[in-house]
Write a structure and sequence with these properties.
It is a single chain. About 35% of the residues lie in helices and about 30% in strands. By secondary structure, it is of the alpha/beta class. The strands form 3 sheets. An 8-stranded mixed sheet has the order 3-6-2-1-9-11-12-10, sandwiched between helices. It has a 6-stranded antiparallel sheet with strand order 14-15-13-16-18-17. A 4-stranded mixed sheet has the order 5-4-7-8. The chain starts with a strand and ends in a 6-residue tail after the last helix. The structure holds adenosine-5'-diphosphate, aspartic acid and magnesium ion (MG).
């Protein structure tokens, strides 16, 4: 007998039939005698609809009320799943974040979980109940208001709850049967990975693979939660296949590159003819940092004799307009001649722990992309990944090219 965390995403609970299918997976695990903490997302499309209504009601709405509205989606599915389970004769009850409680930080819309009251769930187990918990939401620990965890946050709810109840495993059920070498919607030849290291999954998620929220992978890594990604559409009684996210030491065979991720959530800013002198980088990047704008890739091109330079960098698409306003305001201190912005860019990244011990991995990509006529606008590298910024129109071609280049078509 084990204690399990289970999480079902939006497409897995999109209607009552699918919720019944989820109940079959739960019945199977229950039949094995396991205690179950089940986290659910809102029905597919629901969170977008709720967010749209908030935006329609007021362009810049009160984030606390936005959270109150958005959290309702998960409340509905938690209640419905409990009803369906009871209907099958399985004792179950629904829990909202504030009832457990799941206490969070104050950042409405992107709150972090700070504490989970595991006792409520464990007492439910003692009564023989399945706990059905609304994902994506918690209770702000000071104001007592409902807070949400950022898009995709139910993954984080699930891993955090699994850690809090010291679960033997956390199964994330979604609409694909595991983590693939790249998004299978873009590359049909993408292959499912049996295992992926926490560090690699963390990079994949933060570089655009939305199969898991980044924070959920961080928590799984820190608390050593064995996390298994699988499909809710697989036969509930059939063989279980999926991807185990685990420590590097548990992976026998390492490819140099494990996966390719891409993010369209990027924007590029170039400042022309900036003085090539000390203090200029600070004049540009400090005002952006003060406005909480993250800068990712940075390139500086100095010309030897003129004493001026061009600086190119990227910010997230959501911060693009704000970043430009801030830079124009700081123009007298920075002294650039013009600002060029582009949001039709994509960041393509290759990830693999094998890069630590192999040189020249990125260079191969530069050559392969050049051969396809794809111009690289910026590059960043770190220990287990490299990223290139290119024109968005080439996204699929570039992802496929790298996927083939690193042997992933036949992984
Ligand atoms: P859920 O609603 O279950 O949380 P998401 O839509 O958030 O599901 O995440 C699953 C989707 O993530 C898949 O349908 C797939 O298109 C996408 N995805 C992106 N990169 C990958 C990857 N490397 N492996 C698997 N899925 C990926
Ligand atoms: N329903 C939320 C979203 O769509 C949380 C989640 O599904 O993980 O982002
Ligand atoms: Mg998701």
């Amino acid at each position: 007998m084990a204690r399990l965390g289970m999480k079902f995403g939006g497409t897995s609970v999109a209607n009552i039939d699918r919720i019944r299918n989820v109940a079959r997976h739960i019945a199977r695990e229950r039949g094995e005698g396991h205690d179950l903490a089940v986290v659910v997302s809102a029905m597919a499309g629901k969170t977008n609809e709720l967010a749209g209504w908030c935006e329609e009601a007021a362009k810049l709405c009160d984030r606390r009320e936005y959270d109150a509205v958005l959290a309702s989606g998960e409340q509905v599915t938690a209640g419905l799943l409990a009803i369906v389970l009871q209907e099958r004769g399985i004792p179950a009850r629904s829990w909202q974040g504030w009832q457990i409680p799941i206490l969070t930080s104050n950042a409405h819309g992107s709150a972090r979980i700070e504490h989970i009251g595991a006792a409520a769930i464990l007492n439910g187990f003692a009564r023989g109940e399945v706990a059905v918990i609304a994902g994506f939401q918690g209770l702000h620990k000071e104001s007592g208001r409902i807070a949400t965890l950022g898009r995709g946050g139910s993954d984080t709810s699930a891993v955090a709850i699994a850690a809090a109840i010291e679960a033997d495993r956390c199964d994330i059920y979604t609409d694909v049967d595991g983590v693939y070498t790249t998004d299978p919607r873009i590359v049909p030849k993408a292959k499912r990975l049996d295992r992926i290291a926490f560090e690699e999954m963390l990079e994949m998620a933060s570089l655009g693979a939305k199969v898991l929220q980044v924070r959920s992978v961080e928590l799984a890594m820190v608390h050593k939660v064995k996390t298994f990604v699988r499909s809710s559409f697989d036969d509930p009684g059939g063989l279980k296949k999926g991807t185990l996210i685990c420590g590097e030491e548990d992976i026998v065979e390492n490819q140099v590159v494990t996966g390719i991720a891409f993010s369209r959530d990027e924007a590029q800013i170039t400042l022309r003819r900036v003085a090539d002198s000390p203090g200029i980088a600070a004049a540009i990047f400090i005002p952006l940092a003060e406005a909480n704008i993250n800068v990712d890739m940075i390139i500086q091109v100095a010309s030897e004799d003129s004493g001026v330079t061009d600086i190119t960098f990227t910010v997230s698409a959501a911060d693009f307009a704000r970043a430009q306003t801030i830079l124009f305001k700081a123009q007298p201190q920075i002294g650039f001649s013009s600002l060029h912005g582009a949001s039709d860019v994509v960041k393509i990244s290759a990830i693999g722990v094998g890069m630590r011990s192999h040189a020249g991995v990125a260079a191969l990509a530069f050559k392969a992309l050049a051969e396809k006529g794809i111009n690289i606008r910026a590059i960043t590298t770190s220990e287990i990944k490299f990223s290139v910024l290119i024109e968005a129109a080439y996204t699929e071609l570039a992802v496929r090219t790298l996927h083939t280049l690193y042997g992933l078509d036949k992984a």
